[in-house]
Amino acid sequence: MTISGYGSWPTPVTSELVVAAAVRLGDVRPDGAPGTEGTGVIWAEGRAAEGGRIQLVRRSDDGTRTDLLPEGANARTAVHEYGGGAWWLHGGSPGVLWYVEWADQRLHRLECGAEPVALTPEPSVPRGDRYADGDVAPDGSWMVAVREHHPAEHAPAADVVNEIVRLDARVPSTPEVLVSGPDFVAAPRLSPDGAALAWLSWNHPSMPWDDVELTVRDLASGMDVVVAGGPGESVGEPQWQPDGSLTFLSDRTGWWNLYRWMPGQDIEPLVRIDAEIGVPGWALGGSRYAVLDDGRVVFARSSQGFDRLAVRELNGTIVELDTPFSVIGSVRADGPHAVVCVAGSPTAEPGVHRVVPAPASAGEPGAAGVQTLRPPRDLGLHPETISVPEPIQFLSTDAEGNPRTGYALYYPPLGAHEPPEGELPPLLVVIHGGPTGSAVPVLNVGVQYWTSRGFGVVDVDYAGSTGYGREYREQLKGAWGIVDVADCLAAARTLAETGRVDPDRMAIRGGSAGGFTTLAALAREDTPFSAGADHFGVADLAALAADTHKFESRYLDGLIGPYPEARDVYTERSPLTHVEKFSTPLIVLQGDEDAIVPPNQSEMIVDALRSRGVPVAYLLFRGEQHGFRRAESIRRALDAELAFYSRVFGFALPEEEGIEPVEIENL
Prior knowledge:
By secondary structure, the protein is α+β, with helices and mostly antiparallel strands. Helix content is about 15%, strand content about 35%. It folds into two domains: about 20-290, 6 Propeller (Neuraminidase), CATH 2.120.10; about 390-655, Alpha/Beta hydrolase fold, catalytic domain (Rossmann fold, 3-Layer(aba) Sandwich). The strands form eight sheets. The chain has an eight-stranded mixed sheet with strand order 29-30-32-31-33-34-35-36, with helices on both faces. A four-stranded antiparallel sheet has the order 1-2-3-4, with no helix packed on it. It is globular.
């Protein structure tokens, strides 16, 4: 074996460090009456060391932190399989929260100092009724929520019903259906007087970033008014304001911007910029903006792959706030003058922060006070050894072969070691999921795991990614497996041609939809990659169309074409069809409980490569779903992938880490 300097650098960023005290921060909400000073804050923590369960944590004003859920409880919903909106509060009910328990998917009420009480009936089918994204009436006596009904275990996608229900917020009751009919519903929100209900809806084959309607119902008369949305318009995040107006996001201009509607009046644009305030609706319950008591709006906006926090002043001026954040989520008003959010930067993992934008009258545009309520982990890494992403552009092609621009974030190898003279680093091309997703420019210890060992990492925002407007997002329509692959190949070749990486040691890795792009990029005779890692990716598109969950069961209609009418296209685009072109060693990692991309997808490609004599390694993780949450699974997946590359690229593993080898067949 040839021992190379790059790839074998000793590093403090081990798989143990990746998971040690690691948490995945979710939603954050102030715990108190709206507009009041000195409230506590509650946030969600996904804890890898506790099997990936989600705990809810309250921070009091004196800094005391308290775990709210009893031991073993897990605030996570399976609605849409991706979840989100699994818990909520009500300003008029201090000390009370509502959450969905992962084990049974029933909705629970938790009062401070008491045991959780299940409010929804036990379904006849285990986890048959799943709840999410609720809102509580002004008087705290009743609530609305999304309910996803599964009539049988493993029910076909066509039999699953999504609806909005009303139920008692204090004691167990039988939910009453308020909205049914659309294939999907989301964001039920009650007006300040409890007299009106707003919600979002869309139908197959649309996804929530395609064609979404915002409807308002007068609950007394039952009259519905479609406020915004429809074909060619994606609407999100409706929020009622104290004056009875309704704010929401819409991409009617090509960018998810902010608007306001008052009954009987025309829609008013509040923020119009060539940047995205909204994000794709994979998960429920998100919030990218908050309206303060004085009428100013604080919002997150994405441009060229980076988030920034900004404020809309009362005169309509947009001012970017001076904060270090590059990734921002869960922006919510906290008292009359501040917001809380979950945010991170290229040198810091996400934390929970309170941000107080200075008023325009202070004469300091963009000034903001930042208080960290839940700091990120102290990783003990020297700032000079943290690889910071550099936005890059490259020339690629569209589905017809015409030139176009692609985007990516490049992380150069950076560690406490001198690069070997005359040698270029290996490259790891990372393909995000979705495919309607984006690269995330925040400190990710999983990325530093590679860069600190001597790998260059490029995270590709291929055509179809979000953050670049609807036009860029729609370049993937009908072209999945073509333009995304073209961008990944172009990004790798550009870095190699400019002398930044070794063209003979380039690997590609991706999960879910990114796994499909990984396989499609390898199923080519002209692939520039000499290794690949498929994390629960799609190998057979027709099999996925026939066997996946309701939320994505018609997603491929837009990405490829309607099935079975476009069966030939599905066959042609499937990596499994082109296994004769595979020669690149591949490692495949899969969760055995994955309902989104079932294990048979991984097993089909592994069996095909195995029979052809292509080097392949396969790891099946027990008890894991779509994306690994358990510490032991995360560690093993990372170390196995590194061990795989060490064999293929010919570098030594650091002995002190004790990394377990991985079995590679046919090598």
